[in-house]
Amino acid sequence: MIGRMSGRASAAAEPDRRTVLTAATTLGLIFALAACGIRLEDDAPRIPLVPTREPVPDESALLAALVRARARRDAATGGAPAVAAARARSVEQARTLAGLLRQRGVPVPTAGAETGSPAPRTPTGSPSPSTPATNTLPATTPAAGTPPAPGTPAGSPAPSTPAGSPAPGPPAGSPAPSTPAGSTAATTSAAPAGIEALRTGPTPADLAGLARVSTANRALLGSLLLEQAVTTITLGGTVTWARHAPPSGTAAVRPLASMRASGYGLQVVTAQTDRTGLSLARAALAAVSRWQSQLQAAAGSAAGPPPVGYALPFPVTTPSAAKRLGAYLLPRSIPALVAALPATEDLPGLTWLVRAGAEAQLLAERFGAATPAFPGLTL
């Protein structure tokens, strides 16, 4: 028979009241946090049994891009049209990046309200369709302010000059000029307020960082660097490009198809323009032909034969229609460059793609096309 325990032994076996209350309070806190969906900040002290948030891929790079967009937005205080346009793009970039980070559960640092005039396009982060390797030029709606004009039927033949013929220009990997080909630099004297903070970068270090991000975010962040280069040069600054060369193999195929189509269309632009726009038309054709020649060599056996011709998106028989076609074609050559970023792992290839995209957008601006917040990305 088991004897009855003494009072002292019974008290030792039972948990004291303080232990019971502590355990109940801890469990209640855990359930309350879980029920209310409260997330602890990254620097909050760890609480036992409460899960901590794991960083999302490229979180630091995306947060840095958000901080940079907000800083550029706040610095653009001048009333000059180019500064106002740059600010509108920075507003759209900051709004989009903050929304993207919140969607992924990342605590977004507080800042001023993401307000302001939106840029021409707002991306979702995926590259827009580029020119397919067919005999049809991009058939999407022309850019704002470029309605089709009456004229000869679509598909009017281009001049006999081949689109792929090499044009004068620096070879791949040559030292980069301070201002990309075809750009117009603003005067640096009597600079409007806010302009100095906007005409800097991207730097070689920024592009080196692009090589370290995951393929899922490389197009988005590369588009931001592309726009930054356009803004820098438009406002009279310079961009220092490190050694660069086009991507090789299959990564060059899609940009090559886009440049072939753009080169064909720009031959029509050059043939139909008048003397006032001939210099710009020739500069655009020379740049696209140079990129096409470099991509052709880089693609090697992966590059198929070019189509015999392309159907124009609208009739082009007048100088005004030729200018509209230039404003239509050049922005549509950029998505293929941005889409090639995830498949490009080497820094020279990434630099070449961003630089070519920036130069194409600068040429598009001279034809009258507005620069979007995320060049090369679709809605």
End-to-end distance, in Å?
83 Å
Extract low-pLDDT stretches. 1-14, 29-42, 116-126, 128-134, 138-190
Helical fraction: 40-55%
Helix count equals 11
Q: Outline, from the CA principal axes? A: globular
Query: If you average the pLDDT, what whole number results?
Result: 77
Observed structural traits:
379 residues; mainly alpha; disordered N terminus
Short account of what is shown:
The protein has eleven helices and no strands. By secondary structure, it is mainly alpha-helical. The N terminus is likely disordered.
Topology (SSEs and partners):
Layout: H1 7-13, H2 17-36, H3 59-75, H4 81-103, H5 204-210, H6 215-234, H7 253-272, H8 275-299, H9 319-329, H10 334-339, H11 347-367
Helix pairs in contact: 3-4, 6-11, 7-8, 7-9, 8-11, 9-11
